[in-house]
Amino acid sequence: MPQKRTPRARSGSSQRPARRSAGASSHSSLPTARPSAARPSAKSRRVGTSASSIDAATLRHAGASPKRRTAPSEGKALSLPGGHEVLLTRRHFLYGAAGLATLAALGGATAYANSHAKGSDDLNVLTVPEDAVYDSQNLEQVEDVDSVATVVTTAKLPYGTLLWSSDDETAVCLLPTETAKPLAQVGILSLDSGTCTTVLEHAVGEDEGFEIYDVRGNASGIIWTEADIMDGLWRVYAAKVKGDGLGKKRLLDEGDVNWEMPTLAVAGKYGFWQRLPQLNGEARVENSLLKRAKFGSSEAEVVYESQGRMACAPSSCGDAVVITPRARTSGTYYQLTKIDGASGTVTDACVLPTSMKPMECSYGPTGFNFAFEAIYNYGDGIANLGTYMPLTPVEAQVSAPAPEPEDTAEADGEATIAASATQAHSISVDQANAATQAYSDTPWFRYARTPISAPCWCGNWLMIKGSTNMCLVNIDEKKFAALPLEEGADSYKDFLASSGMGKRAVTYSSVNHTPINGETEKCCKVRVWETK
Over the stretch 283-300, which tens digit does the pLDDT of each residue have? Predict the structure, then answer.
């Protein structure tokens, strides 16, 4: 239970929470050209780069050219990045990320990867030749968008609303208010009717200075975080969805300034949260954890444990979640990991080359997809910025762990018992190798635009954010279509709320527009799409 603290008055103006915005890109929305930072020939040496650090209240420019950084000599294995690191997500725009944290520059040394298929300790890493990657510049455009997709539901929500959807029934909404307290509320939007019902009007700990900070949910339940940013405290809550409201609100976890605000995901009847230590906090040597709890229960359990920081936030993928822990080996190798929501077991994995750090990851009908906002001087076919996924389905499954000798625990004592407990919350190098090799043996697709968010699947079409428009891509037929924009949308245009796979996809735009001889329209416009 949280420690009881004396209620106190909160200072602050009555201005509305800040919303995310981004500068408009001058690039075309059509994936017909490579980014300006295109990779040189195989004979010239590429240098690993990172996207520029940005103001925490501004999105990445869709077509921005990344800065270049030089990898050190071969043989070093240093963690990336160093210094303070804060994950930039849409929730930061609600409170103003500039007041919470700034992004750490992805500078300093990186580990230089060699071209062998084996990593440290005989670890298989993803190896994709350049000629095995189909680039989006070769896609054929479908001019008649109506022949590809249609809008089945629309909705208008308060200006600055943020949305997330991981099923075909609902989207969970973070609704800004007109007051300083509460700053935000939680709503559930029906994707059939377009009706939004407010289910959480204020934080559970509002009297103690807490505000609703982030939320994820599906038709089964919601999970949310509350923050007291004045004292650096956070809590994780969850509740079942019951009719037009919520069941009992359950406290699942809490922390202080030594732990980052958890990032959230949902899968089936479970809520998940990722717990990472602050780089400069007292818990900095602790492992990173993925935890879960069933909606309606307060019993939390560790699902996965990473010896080092995970690369990005977990992704909701229907009945599963995808995370990016470190592979259990020396050096820094990020491992794309799919975890079944019902059982909590790992069902698929793929290890990236050393120090290649994805900014987003998800899962589709062909397997993992991931995005780089950097250009690397190694990695062959996956060295450039963009979003990657297999062109054909990968059938790989994580192999079962090898049995432990019966007398191991007696011989090694408590140390071995503790190690075994840790191993139970991760997979070994041997378990990941076969799955990784299967991904190396398949052809890949690259969407050649600076990534903004993970894509989703709407029927048989991939929906992904282009430089300006939201685009649909049929990787089987090698075609794409650019969806029309909302008139008067802010500079970042449409944003993708959906993740994972489904028959529907949700996009939204913050619109502040005054037509000629008309009234000002200021709202969040939501569109629910289905493909044909």
Answer: 999 999 999 999 999 999
